[in-house]
Amino acid sequence: MTDALRVGLVGYGSAGRGIHARLLREVGAEVVRVVTRNPARAAAAEQDWPGVAVDPDVPSLLAHAGELDVVVVASPTGDHVEHVTRALAAGASVVVDKPLATTADEAAALARLGAEAGDRLTVFQNRRWDPEQLTLRGLLEAGELGTVHRFERRWERWRPVPQDRWKENDTRAGGLLLDLGAHLVDSAVQLFGPVARVHAELRNLTTPAEDDVFLALTHAARPDGSTVISHLQAGALVGAPGPRTRVLGDRGAYLVTSFEGEATPFAALDEGDDAHEGWLVHGDERVPVPRAPGGHPDFYRAVAAWVRGTGPVPVDPADAVVTARVLDAARLSAREHRTVTLDA
């Protein structure tokens, strides 16, 4: 195996090129094969990665699986089952973009295939490496907030004219519940543990798929009997987005006001401060919190160690199945206007 990670990338759109290829370049990996039928995207891949081979379909790329260290599946969510199944059967180690699949049953089937193939599957839950997530985890571990009773996170945008793409138009595999909801739920579970009950409100205001999402998750009780309730929101028709994150405990609160350049009236609180990530708040008193080290490229550094046998799987596919079960419950809750209880 060469020093540089040799990558086959399925899809070269907003996820494949805009996220995965960017992070792969940052960690010194080499994209050597790309699957796309779009001439403009093929030209972009050839410009970005001189000498790259452009394949018209997944089987063509997988014919060269032995030349690759990892296959990254960045195709539309509705294609994940087919593409991951083919890649595992070809002997490849696989990174699949989130969500793992459109339903919990599909996700569980893929997780089983990955396990049977020698644990060669992981899921791109890169938001575990967000500075705010890392910083918040440090605060929780240090006990700065005391006993937390509520976690709020918003992923909101002001996009009154929607984009015309599969994420907005595919009512089975698109929509903000599966897209951003997969990140929001994973973040909540990683911080506060399993979900016992789910209440959801889902609407499609400007697109065929959901573009207005609210989830209320009641996490399993802690040993002392206390519980955390997570309120998670994603929306595309939000004229005043944010604040991004608010965590409430009996010793104080953690507040993150802005997020990745999204327009919000709360951003003024953080203007000109690049060393801190949010605020530790007690009423009208607020203290900036030093940003924890780390970032999204660390996911692919972990992938490199994983495929070389020197590190664990970056994200266990079983975690993605847990998230999928919560998202399935959210659909049921919204459809039947009731709270859904999950099995322990």
Description:
This is Gfo/Idh/MocA family oxidoreductase. Strand 11 and strand 12 form a beta hairpin. The longest helix has 20 residues. It is globular and about 60 Å long. The strands form two sheets. The protein has a nine-stranded mixed beta sheet. A six-stranded parallel beta sheet has the order 3-2-1-4-5-6, with helices on both faces. It has 344 residues and is an alpha/beta fold. 46% of the residues are buried. The chain folds into two domains: 136 residues, NAD(P)-binding Rossmann-like Domain (Rossmann fold, 3-Layer(aba) Sandwich), CATH 3.40.50.720; 167 residues, Dihydrodipicolinate Reductase, domain 2.
Q: Tally the structural domains.
A: 2
How many H/I helices?
A: 10
Instruction: Assign the CATH superfamily of the largest domain.
Output: Dihydrodipicolinate Reductase, domain 2
Globally, the shape reads: globular
Helix-strand pattern: EHEHEHEHEHEHEHHEEEEEEEHHE
Structural class: alpha/beta
Biggest sheet layout: 9 strands, mixed
Helix content: 25-40%
DSSP strand count:
15
CATH architecture of the largest domain: 2-Layer Sandwich
* CATH T-level topology of the largest domain: Dihydrodipicolinate Reductase, domain 2
Strand order of the largest sheet: 14-13-12-11-7-10-9-8-15
Q: Which stretches of 5+ consecutive residues score pLDDT under 50?
A: none
Q: How widely separated are the two ends?
A: 43 Å
Keywords: Oxidoreductase
Protein name: Gfo/Idh/MocA family oxidoreductase
Domain Gfo/Idh/MocA-like oxidoreductase N-terminal: 5-123
Pfam family, one: GFO_IDH_MocA
